[in-house]
Amino acid sequence: MKIYRIDKPNDAKTALKLLGSDKGGVAIMSKKMDTHLFVIKDISAGAANILKQDCLSIGAELAVPTGVVTCSKSHYDAILIGTKRQLEFLARKEKAQPFGLKKLAKKLEDFLKESKFKTKIMGIINANDDSFYPGSRYLEKSAVEAIENMIEDGADIIDIGAVSSRPGSEPVTSQEELRRLKPIIDTIKQEKLYDKAIFSIDSYSLEAIAYALESGFSIVNDITGMQNSKLGELAKSYGATYIIMHMQGTPETMQKNPHYDNVILDIDAFFEDRIERALEIGFKIEDLVLDVGIGFGKTLEHNLMLLKNLKHFRHFGCEVLIGASRKSMIHKIVPTPVEERLPGTLAIHLEAIRRGASIVRCHDVKEHKQAIKVYEAIEEGSVL
């Protein structure tokens, strides 16, 4: 007799199929193998006691501090532990309970939904002379050549911007931004490059976004996260996808002592607010992409916490974008000049994909294409 370990629930599902289990059995047993942990903040003592008993009745568990049973405080933090099957059943039970447990049930169901997205590579083109990575700066002719190379190397999306958002950068006028962008956008249209890739405009200027959308761009990448609702209304009028990014402060101020009460919950609340705003404008969930904004008003600790918890943000039902290409967080871990940060970039991005990201924004398309293909081959490989 021999034994070996199966690493992930998805592998377990594959193993069950190869074993010869019927379709219904695969669905049931794989859920028993998929264990989840949720931190619940500020749950009332009454709700905690009810939830604890309901968990125990189905084989799940709620870890709580000493004093919950006697209600020595009004509210507590707790950790919910259970398989997917147990938590789905628990969510149904809690819909009939008081003390805010109905709302908790809805959140649990959102977290447990499975949504799969194809991994896509977004290549970066900066039409300016002050982006933090010199290798991403292009003028008109070199920009179009770089775009064509990125498409050939495997880019699904090309993201073009003309204003640097590096820490400490200063804004430029809309007129200057459009002056930088216009010749590139015009050439893309003239060369019919829209037939070969999807194009995204990295801007929060109404004039620049309008020109790009009118010319055939189909994604708006807004680092301000739809702070200006008019940007959303404009994008919606063209049927564009909207990338909502989180940034604390502005590029000039964002790295001056960034602070969060809880970086995961604070950014979650931000996305909840902006998604609600987008839905009111008329967007559908599938039209929205979320970007936690690595390096935009975050310390290294904040960035690492966000990367470890990217899957959390999938509960909204949107795709998640990761953009850590050659960023300074790599230098803070291993002191390295920007030109030598490709290995660190690949490590971050592959781990981000494993943890829920489906769009990777990067400078080095060819290298990412190879790394992602190898990663996917490992993930899809047989477990028996």
TrEMBL record:
Enzyme class (EC, first level): transferase
Cofactor(s) for this UniProt protein: Mg(2+)
EC number: 2.5.1.15
CC per GO annotation: cytosol
Xref: InterPro entries: DHP_synth-like, DHP_synth_dom, Dihydropteroate_synth-like_sf, Dihydropteroate_synthase_prd, Pterin-binding_dom
Catalysed reaction equations from the record: (7,8-dihydropterin-6-yl)methyl diphosphate + 4-aminobenzoate = 7,8-dihydropteroate + diphosphate
Alphabetized CDD domains for the sequence: DHPS
UniProt pathway annotation: Cofactor biosynthesis; tetrahydrofolate biosynthesis; 7,8-dihydrofolate from 2-amino-4-hydroxy-6-hydroxymethyl-7,8-dihydropteridine diphosphate and 4-aminobenzoate: step 1/2
UniProt entry keywords in alphabetical sequence: Folate biosynthesis, Magnesium, Metal-binding, Transferase
Pfam family name, one: Pterin_bind
Record-level Gene Ontology MF annotations: dihydropteroate synthase activity; metal ion binding
Sequence ranges assigned to domain Pterin-binding in this UniProt record: 119-373
Coiled coil: none
UniProt key word Aminoacyl-tRNA synthetase: no
Gene Ontology annotations of biological process type: folic acid biosynthetic process; tetrahydrofolate biosynthetic process
Database matches in NCBIfam families: DHPS
Protein name per Swiss-Prot or TrEMBL: dihydropteroate synthase
Organism for this UniProt entry: Hydrogenimonas thermophila
Record lineage: Bacteria, Pseudomonadati, Campylobacterota, Epsilonproteobacteria, Campylobacterales
